[in-house]
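Today's session is about reading a structure prediction critically. Students often jump straight to the picture, but the first step is always the sequence itself: look for stretches that repeat, for charged clusters, for runs of hydrophobic residues. Only then move on to the predicted structure, which in these notes is written as discrete structure tokens rather than atom positions. Here is the chain we will use throughout the hour.
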Amino acid sequence: MKSLWLIPALALLLACGFTEARASEYSRTVGETDMAFAQRVLRIPDSGDPNVIAADWNGVPTLFVDYETTGDNPDRLLVALQRQPDGAYRAIQVTDGEQEGGTPDIAAIGFANADRDPAKELIVILTWNQAHYDVGGTLYEVRLFDDPKPGQISLTQLKLSGHFGSECDCTWRDGSSKHYPFKTIAAVKAELKRLGY
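Below is the predicted structure for this chain, in token form.
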């Protein structure tokens, strides 16, 4: 008798699971632009400063959508909308660009092999403008992500991202400066090749 509460709880859990599965597949309307589609399905307000990049990732048409969250200190989210064989799209969370003295920009997106399997991984370069009394320039960070697997709702960041790290390409008030070498997709690809990928 004590386990009777499990039946309604299990029914609710299954219903929520099926709702989530349906909610993660989106259909486009006829003539809908990439931006209009992304804003509609991800519920992005105009104030979210959205950007959309269309790309082919390992043979799958993909829309990379970045936008700002709401609030006093907004982050920049990056989501991939991937077209499925039936024509619907599924949303995959890529990364959250956190505050670092400001909201970041997605400076570049590209693809390269970073784990020696046949599929290409995703390269994301984030930038934060640095304008302070003592220092000015741009903070860069490279993040590498494994290609998505069936049913996956968020990408896995590769440990190799740590090799590229984050660093300020900046000049200080005392005249010193620092250069970050991985500001472009080409530079990241060259380093991956040097590492044997």
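Discussion point for the tutorial: The helical segments are 6-23, 34-42, 161-164, 185-194.
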